[in-house]
UniProtKB/TrEMBL annotation:
PANTHER family, sorted: DIHYDROLIPOYL DEHYDROGENASE (PTHR22912:SF224), DISULFIDE OXIDOREDUCTASE (PTHR22912)
Protein's name according to its UniProt entry: Dihydrolipoyl dehydrogenase
Keywords recorded for this protein, A-Z: Cytoplasm, Disulfide bond, FAD, Flavoprotein, NAD, Nucleotide-binding, Oxidoreductase, Redox-active center
Comment on bound cofactor: Binds 1 FAD per subunit.
Cofactor annotation: FAD
Location(s) in or outside the cell: Cytoplasm
InterPro entries: Class-I_Pyr_Nuc-Dis_Oxidored (IPR050151), FAD/NAD-bd_sf (IPR036188), FAD/NAD-binding_dom (IPR023753), FAD/NAD-linked_Rdtase_dimer_sf (IPR016156), Lipoamide_DH (IPR006258), Pyr_nuc-diS_OxRdtase (IPR001100), Pyr_nucl-diS_OxRdtase_dimer (IPR004099), Pyr_OxRdtase_I_AS (IPR012999)
NCBIfam families, per database record: lipoamide_DH
UniProt organism field: Vreelandella titanicae
One GO BP annotation of this record: 2-oxoglutarate metabolic process
Binding site for FAD: K58, G122, D319, M325, L326, A327, H328
Length: 479
């Protein structure tokens, strides 16, 4: 007789492990299947995010940023250091230590909450059955009243640039360079490409980014995107827009990339090439053909607003369903699904999911941007405030960027918040909370902020929505 669980979760990434822990906390007998194996051959939890994505990339972003700060900017504030250098091997060692602490923490949480960790590859073979193929090839079948598919996503590969070990790599391979390549090419100037390009640019690479789209960061508010592009160009990132890669050729230890732009066919030679053109859902092989879970043509699993599939008792969350491919979105979906399985009413506000690009300065946003509002015919009013007029930002020697708030012209309700600046990823939480509570711009304007803080830029942006900013010349008169 097969082992029986109330819930089996397939995938222990930020969606799956959170769903499993929450389900166990709700008193449900829960198992979580994970196939990820680390360099030592040990099964580890955390998925892409903790092992080769969010966490390790932030470790390298932070260490490389500290290096540039010490080398180029400490003298500006009276800290003089000579001969600042990098030890990339040590940086990678630190990155690996951060990964180990995080994945080890999840395993400990599984034990503390009574989640059964199943090692191997999970596959839905019936509406209430999961088959697990162990690393040794042995198969075991488990019964479950409910199944949560949280299989995540993998990098998209494109025919013009097939992966070539050590030369043409995806985002995971870009975290393993043992030295900064002299000439680094990055295909794709999206979130992942900008972060990885920033890391290696800071560590000495000449970085050229080839972006097929004609618009830089089209999902970001135009004013914020324009400011971000200006700042990144100043840092040395060569971002070529409208550059569609058509082919590549490995010549010895170099990669020759061919692309077309407004000027015709072009060619560039790099020492390394990173392909960052997006991610696709990892659903192939996760669901047996005999199970009638519906998928679209791109491999995404169809779900409703509560992440139910068309098959009762089977749910899907995270990168393998619609919506932004973000770890925190997956986690919140995991909590929602676990609560629903436990018999509670739960839902998620998809209009208030923040996004962050961890460049320096950071870029963060939540809700709609100005161009989306105009396209939808929504009457809005906006308020912006530069960090150059913020006392704490000046004291931090980090005055680049701005904060912007978008509010409904009639109701004053906040519809979006957009920031480029130091710690934007932390500051954006104010916008998320404001939108969750249905706040108006006036609510933030009437809030007392601590001084001096960079958060005051949000306060001033809220005041600026009605022309009442204190520390900036106003175009509107007080009423």
């Amino acid at each position: 007789m097969a082992d029986k669980f109330d819930v089996i979760v397939i995938g222990a990434g930020p969606g799956g492990y959170v769903a499993a822990i929450r389900a166990a906390q709700m008193g449900l007998k829960t198992a979580c299947v994970e196939k990820w194996v680390n360099k030592e051959g040990k099964t580890v939890h955390g998925g892409t995010c903790l092992n080769v994505g969010c966490i390790p990339s932030k470790a390298l972003l932070e260490t490389s940023h500290k290096f540039v700060e010490a080398r180029d900017h400490y003298a500006e504030i009276g800290i003089e250091i000579s001969d600042v250098s990098t030890n990339i091997a040590k940086m990678l060692e630190f990155k690996d230590q951060v990964i180990a602490k995080n994945v080890g923490g999840i395993s400990a949480l599984f034990k503390a909450n009574g989640v059964t960790a199943l090692e191997g590859t999970g596959k839905v073979v019936a509406s209430k059955q999961v088959e697990v193929t162990g690393h040794d090839g042995e198969k075991a079948t488990y019964d479950a009243d409910n199944i949560v598919i949280a299989a995540g996503s993998v990098p998209v590969e494109i025919p013009p640039t097939p992966m070539t070990e050590g030369l043409i790599v995806d985002s995971s391979g870009a975290l393993e360079f043992t030295e900064a390549p002299k000439r680094l090419g990055v295909i794709g100037a999206g979130v992942i490409g900008l972060e990885l390009g920033s890391v290696w640019s800071r560590l000495g690479s000449e970085v050229t980014m080839l972006e097929a789209m004609d618009t830089f960061l089209p999902m970001v508010d135009t004013a914020i995107a324009k400011e971000t592009q200006k700042l990144l160009k100043k840092q040395g990132l060569d971002i070529k827009l409208g550059a569609r890669v058509t082919g590549s050729e490995v010549k010895g230890e170099e990669v020759v990339v061919k692309y077309s732009d407004a000027n015709g066919e072009q060619e560039m030679t790099f020492d390394k090439l990173i392909v960052c053109v997006g991610r696709r859902p990892y659903t192939k092989g996760v669901i047996d053909e005999g199970v009638s879970v519906e998928l679209d043509e791109r491999g995404f699993i169809f779900v409703d607003d509560q992440c139910r599939t068309n098959v009762p008792g089977i749910y899907a969350i995270g990168d393998c369903v619609r919506g932004p491919m973000l770890a925190h979105k997956a986690s919140e979906e995991g909590v929602m699904v676990a609560d629903i399985i436990a018999g509670h009413k739960a839902e998620m506000n998809y209009d208030a999911i923040p996004s962050v690009i961890y460049t320096a300065p950071e870029v963060a946003w939540v809700g709609i941007n100005e161009q989306e509002a105009k396209a939808a015919g929504i009457e809005i009013k906006t308020g912006s405030f530069p960090f150059a007029a913020n006392g704490r930002a000046l004291a931090n020697n980090a005055s680049d960027g701005m904060a912007k708030i978008i509010a409904d012209a009639e109701t004053d309700r906040i519809l979006g918040m957009h920031i480029v600046g130091q710690h934007a990823g932390e500051l954006i939480a104010q916008g998320v909370i404001a939108m969750e509570f249905g706040s108006s711009a006036e609510d933030l304007a009437l809030t007392c902020y601590a001084h001096p803080t960079t958060a005051e830029a949000i306060h001033e942006a809220a005041l600026a929505v009605d022309g009442h900013a204190i520390h900036m010349a106003n175009r509107k008169k007080r009423k």
